[in-house]
Amino acid sequence: MRNLTYSRRKSSEKVFSIIFYFLTCNLWLWALYLPLVSAKKKELHIGGIFPINGTGGWQGGQACEPAAQMALLDVNNNKDLLSGYTLKLHWYDSECEPGRGAAVMYQLLYKDPVKVMLLAGCSTVCTTVAEAAKKWNLIVLCYGASSPALSNRQRFETLFRTHPSATVHNPTRIKLMQKFGWSRVAILQQAEEVFISTVEDLEERCKVAKIEIVTRQSFLTDPTEAVRNLKRQDARIVVGLFYVVAARRVLCEIFKQKLYGKAYVWFFIGWYEDKWYEFGLEDEGINCTKEEMRQAAEGHLTTEAVMWNQDNRTTISGMTEKDFRMRLHAELSKKGFDIDSGRLPEGYQEAPLAYDAVWALALAFNKTIEKLAEQGKKLEEFSYTNRGIRDEIYNALNTTSFLGVSGKTAFSEKGDRIALTQVEQMINGTYNLLGYYDTENLIMQWYNKEKWTSEKVPQDRTIEKTVLRKVSLSLFISMSTVAGVGIVWAILLILFTYTYRERNVIVLSHPVTNTLMLIGHALCFVSVFLVGLDGQFVSESMFTIMCTLRKWCLSIGFTLGYGAMFSKVWRVHRLTTKNKSATKHKIQPWKLYLLVATLVAIEVIYLTIWTLVDPLRRVVESFQPEFPDDLEEDIRIMPQLEHCESYHNNIWLGITYSFKGLLLIFGLFLAYETRSLKVRHINDSRLVAMSIYNVAVLCLITTPVTMIISSQQDASFAFVALAIIFSSMITMGLVYIPKVAEVIREGNERSDRSSAPDGGTTKEEEERYQKLLSENEQLQKILEQKEERLRQLRQKLEDKNAIRKLESGDDDGDPAAIKVDMVTTTEDSKTKDIASKGGMKNNNVEQIEVLETYYTEPSDSAIGHTPKLSVHTHTPTTTEFELSESYL
Ligand code: ABU
């Protein structure tokens, strides 16, 4: 047993010695072989610029640099690629600062060895580097630059990028806006060229899609004011374009200014890492808690180009997307990133782009080497002045196409990557995939997983509800009812005037003029109804017609109603101012009608010109918005009020008010002047004058007041309606109630004892007066006969006296002659006495005669006491010309 054990030990010692011997010999062999192999491989140097330790912008180098190193290893280990060459990466950190980017680029260029190509990330740095690199015939391949500005081939002659342009988001954004019915959006952007050029592209696309961009706000570092402006402009759907550090500041501001929740939707860029809104709050001096940031971020949408291969196919490197992810995680863990904690390094999303960028340049170099070999040239001969090799690399890269871990990698003629976009939404703190949009084929794949705080899609604006301010229905009905009563009353009074047209009380009040006045008032009452017919009853087109109708109705109504009254006081006034010769004729009614007709004709001509030249139209006055008490309702009430206006409204109103104002003031003057006069043939002149006071005062008050309160529909309507109703009702009452009362008093019999309501003469008195006149004439004839007889008798007496004198020679006075003289003297004194009884002074005699001709009124003194002597004198009585007390 012991021997067996020993022999076994011996044999194992032998095996070990053989293995040791073999290994030792081979190590020597390896030691000799390896330097030979490596001496054969030529190095191709590439420069790398990675943003890693900066404080703003995109620090995507954190994940992209390890990914690039992985690719470098894989490419160098690939036997089919770059045989005889090995790629070597020289890299620096740019911190995503363009100045630093330029500095490291110079270091790469001026430090040996010569770099054949540059890899760069972060748009701001790529812009600087790519613009300069062409001067060194260097191709720049950007793995992390989204700026649309980089698609300018003239400016960036030698630039390629595996990162898609940020413009790929825009068709997706537009598609989403259309999908959710948003046609009013706002933009908030950081002031960087990458975002400016993205917004320019977005604006153009919005214009084509007829989406209104309500405001475009930008900020450099502090977004406070920009966010405030968004709120001010009632922006609800906002596209935000900024780097992640700025995004955190914006989100905090969104929380503070309450621009989140059910009423708002934010579009953010999709390449921020998960939980981006929770990191670095303290370091960056952000004054919001994680919870607040979470609240503000809830529900936002992101759009991003798909940067990871979507299927599980093996890519050019022999890895699937999953393999790559696992390897990357391992590499990142080695670098100290705690992947399991959920905090991924910046640039994690873009890592496949950096990986594929290295593969793309390796493939391009491979092609170039072959091409150059045909020309007897070598890639390692590249120098910064060698344009030929640069062109070969350019052409090779231009035609490179492969399936990478980021998907199909190919470059457009502008050097851009063609990509699919994805849409995500933050629901309960995590990003949920909502769908994809193929911007090339315009195909949307949608999973209907979106969630909104209020269950319904948020509105793109506060819904503005236009509410027409309308006259209150009860007010309209009550005013219209009263106006209706007025119309009925006016019609009844017209019938009354016609029915009792034979009565003195009507005859002597100029019934035709009164009827015109009643028609005028009826029209005014109709206009009350028309003024109240606003948008609640009529359509917009009908409202315009209504404007013209109410203007005509009220204007003609006023002119007829007021004009008829004005004509009466005007005639009364004229009678008192005419000279004796002009008063030989009786009062002529046509003169009253002519005056009314003239006023109406002026009005009609004026209204016709107004209507034809500058017609009234519907003008809407808008008021300050009002908000409903119900906060759930996302609406704003916009009150509006309809008005009737012409383009040159002030001019037309100025003319109207001037003319009517003068007419009213003149009417007032005439009414005042004739306040003490009573005229038999215009028996109601004093009542008409009173009506003129009433109408004039009401009009002169109402017009300016309604102009001031025109924005308050109820007050304005009530004021106008009441002014029309009061003035018309009072006028009709004043002029007609005494007439109606008189007719009622008379009953159906025509009483001889009736007297005029206003103290004027009746027809019976007129007849009596005519009778007395003819009696007077007869008596006058008798008187003439008597005088003739007296004269004859005197003659005879004188003849007799002369004969007697001759016969007796006596020259004394005759008692008969003395008697005749006495009679004559007595008659003269009586005449004078009667004149003084009439109460007239000498200077009134002419006036008395004027009135005699006009009013043909019998004198009380002539009728009763001294008929014989009244033939030559005429004394006016109270019925024809009365100096009464003022009724003012
Ligand atoms: N996806 C990162 C892009 C960074 C940049 O364009 O600067």
* Low-pLDDT sequence parts: 1-8, 751-760, 811-888
Task: Please state the average pLDDT score.
Answer: 84
Which molecules are bound in this entry?
A: gamma-amino-butanoic acid
Total helix count?
24
Question: What is Rg?
Answer: 57 Å
The rounded distance between the terminal residues' Cα atoms is 159 Å
Number of strands: 18
Percentage of residues assigned to helices = 40-55%
- Strand percent estimate: 5-15%
Biggest β-sheet: count, sense, barrel? 8 strands, mixed
Sheet with the most strands: spatial strand order: 7-6-8-9-10-13-14-15
Shape: rod-shaped
Membrane topology: Multi-pass membrane protein
Main location: membrane
Transmembrane segments: 15-36, 475-500, 512-532, 552-571, 592-613, 651-672, 692-709, 715-737
Protein name: G-protein coupled receptors family 3 profile domain-containing protein
Question: Can you describe this structure?
Answer:
53% of the residues lie in helices and 13% in strands. It is α/β, with parallel strands linked by helices. An 8-stranded mixed sheet has the order 7-6-8-9-10-13-14-15, with helices on both faces. It has a 5-stranded parallel sheet with strand order 2-1-3-4-5, with helices on both faces. It is rod-shaped, with a radius of gyration of 57 Å. The protein starts with a helix and ends in a 24-residue tail after the last helix. The relative contact order is 0.06. It binds gamma-amino-butanoic acid. Gamma-amino-butanoic acid (ABU) binds at residues 58, 60, 122-123, 144-147, 163, 194, 271, 350.
